[in-house]
Amino acid sequence: MKIEKPRGTRDFLPDDIEKRREIERIMRKIAESYGYREVLTPTFEHLDLFTIKSGESIIEEIYAFKDKSGRDLALRPELTAPVMRLYVNECMGIPKPIRFYYFANCFRYERPQKGRYREFWQFGVELIGSSSYLADVEVIELAYRIMDELKLSFEMHVGHVGLLRHVLRDLSEDRANKIMRLIDKRDLDALDRYLDGDLRDKIHSLVDMVGKSDVLEDAKKIIPNFNFDHLERVCRALDDLEVDYKVNLGIARGLEYYTGVVFEAYAEGLGAQNQICGGGSYRLSHLFGGDDVPATGFALGFDRIAEICDLDSKKPVRVVVVSFRGLEVEALKIADAIRSKAVVVTDVMERSVKKQLSYANDISADYAVIVGEKELKEGKIAVKDLKTKEQRITSLEEFLETLG
Ligand code: HAM
């Protein structure tokens, strides 16, 4: 019986992994340069961690199960709640602000399609301990710098959930949450069934407010009682830091823990699932038994980014050491010496020299080093450049020098 991989999951071959590792390396390097340090939480958590606040939609999308002792557990659908649980369990006493980053797989029971998987990876950060506009500026700038360094074509949109929440403040929490979800999904028809009159008009105009920071002036006229100071300071700082973004007052975010500035990035070339980054400021710690600490962060959709990212990464030189019968162990010694400069593979199938050379071509090696009786006696090796097909007799030292 042939067994397929589960729906919504993927296998990654070496070419995919090499590209993904390179992207991951760049993300880590930039996050670390801002003082973020990596944390790792368990792949599964108590189900409660996600149902307390993450929103109704996430319950339906969660891989939840009982273990053999009847505990309700879930595969993590995201890492903000786990990182805040970690903060409450281990780090409440350490000096703030705390800067954590993570790179890990997440699981959501969603309908798979291009760019939407049931197992996917997030690279994210959480900045814990500050409600200042500077904290929002830092994480938005960091997300922007990572995507910019990866040379992605994207648009960063910045908004504030407080504004939509302010307009919906007289509704029950349940109803307001439902409306926020419809706004997040841009399901405006359904929205109109829930809203009417002045409320509907205000929500419609906010959802349409996308543009340069002058949209804030329009928004102030519609929602005069809302304090725009925080968002304005964020926008001014981003302008000064030359972070390119649009104000988008219709960003509602799918998860319900956000309290303030929120942001999303959308990329070209992905079709419907074009959101490659989501984040914002939130409060979760008090729900997990900790202090009511403010936090802000984001997660990048690693798989979507890998799909559109074009890196011209340098491949290492590949050498195949080919040996005549009886000289296999000599070949292994020579291979060990070359490994300081190149990727080296040797024959493990006791094949003929001809077949070893043919395999070297099959795997697109750069050089074949041929270990023969005559050359060995003279302290030499034969080196064949597999691109030009030229072969020469040289010393191991000289060959190593040519490898740089
Ligand atoms: P999120 O927007 O749900 O936010 O997810 C972040 C990113 O993960 C999305 O922008 C998207 O690129 C990617 N993503 C989500 N679901 C899938 C999927 N099924 N397949 C592939 N990629 C997917 C969060 O998870 C928040 N925890 C972000 C955050 C951190 N907020 C504050 N701190």
Could you describe the 3D structure shown?
- The protein has two domains: 295 residues, Bira Bifunctional Protein, Domain 2 (BirA Bifunctional Protein, domain 2), CATH 3.30.930; 85 residues, Anticodon-binding domain (Rossmann fold).
- A nine-stranded mixed β-sheet has the order 1-5-6-12-11-10-7-9-8. Strands 14-13-15-16-17 form a five-stranded mixed β-sheet, with helices on both faces.
- Helix 13 links the parallel strand 13 and strand 14.
- The chain is built from 16 helices and 17 strands.
- Helix 1 packs antiparallel against helix 5 and helix 5 runs parallel beside helix 11.
- The chain is elongated and about 90 Å long.
- The mean pLDDT is 95.
- With 404 residues, it is an alpha+beta fold.
- The structure holds histidyl-adenosine monophosphate.
- The site of histidyl-adenosine monophosphate has 25 residues, from strand 6, strand 11, strand 12 and helix 12.
